[in-house]
Amino acid sequence: MRIAQIAPLYECVPPQRYGATERIVHYLTEALVERGHEVTLFASGDSQTHATLIPCCARALWHDRDVTDTLVHHVAQLERVAARAHEFDVMHFHTEPLHLPLACRLNVASLTTLHGVIRPQDLGVLLDLSRDAVLVALSQAQREGAPHANWLSTIGHGLPFDLFRPSAVHDGYLLWMGRMMPGKGPDAAIEIARRSGKPLKMAAAVHSGERAWFEDRMRPLLRRHASCVEYLGEVGGELRTMLLSRAEALLMPITWDEPFGLVMIEALASGTPVIANRRGAVPEVLRNGVSGFIVDGLEAAVDAVARLPSLSRDSCRAEFERRFTAERMCDDYLAAYDTLIARRGAMHTAPAWVGSCLSQASEASRTRLAS
């Protein structure tokens, strides 16, 4: 199968540090190549892949000091994608929703994985206009933002089997990892660790949009609790792997509706349980009392820390192997591609009266809009 993967340009594929979407694009692309498919990756020029790379900018936009407008680079990327659309059996978009009107008009099977929260007053407006755009969700919780959209499937993230090394023992610290922003609950993580009497390691990227909040809210907390909280900044590579595998638990005291939560399955792959608030996709990812604890608020999270010895790190790893591998994710996407291509084939071979009816319906729609 000839498959195009279209990635955001903010980070390279795979990202050197933070970048959940680009990380998943990498895992899926490499798994598809390994299966023998002909894959083309539209991404930043500093990406690394076994697929054919079509560079759509010189380097990841968030790391290019010469770039002041990321939008124009994504528009240019769409021009490259449209010009080569005829070369593919299926085009898989992971980009900002800017592409949705175009995807509906390409003469090729296409689908979009939505990686963020769907707010009806924002993205929902575009989805209402782009009803022909075929969508994949990361979780059932994510779909609730647009229940009537054109959903093809729900496919959770997956990781390469040997990417993280599970550890049977831990070093007694709690871990908070992700993007430094209010909805992720970094301030709550500090309070949970403080009340639990546990050291906390924090590994986080601070993006420009959250810089003022970080300085006003988080910097004073980090200084005040410097004796028990170690702030490491943005981490990647071996340090990231080590932090996850040696933590007693990962804290996820989120206050927003997480569409999936990649760091949760990274922790499970490392044999590390997760303590997370009951928001968004958390109940779909974690098995309460098996791979972690699903809680409601600070007090419950502190209580969960005390109950961590009741959990098995082997069970956490087993949950990952059963549900969250890149092999499983690749299988699910290939099934989605096959379904999409079969649907298009059925439309193209439909009796002539179907096309006539569709044309009449389209003309009636245009008449109603004109009136």
Automatic annotation (TrEMBL):
Task: Give every Glycosyl transferase family domain span.
Answer: 172-308
Q: Which SUPFAM superfamilies match?
A: UDP-Glycosyltransferase/glycogen phosphorylase (SSF53756)
Q: Which CDD domains match?
A: GT4_AviGT4-like (cd03802)
Query: What is the superkingdom listed in this entry's lineage?
Result: Bacteria
Q: Domain Glycosyltransferase subfamily 4-like N-terminal spans what residues?
A: 22-119
**InterPro entries assigned to the protein according to its UniProt record, in alphabetical order:** Glyco_trans_1, Glyco_trans_4-like_N
User: How is this protein named in the record?
Assistant: Glycosyltransferase family 4 protein
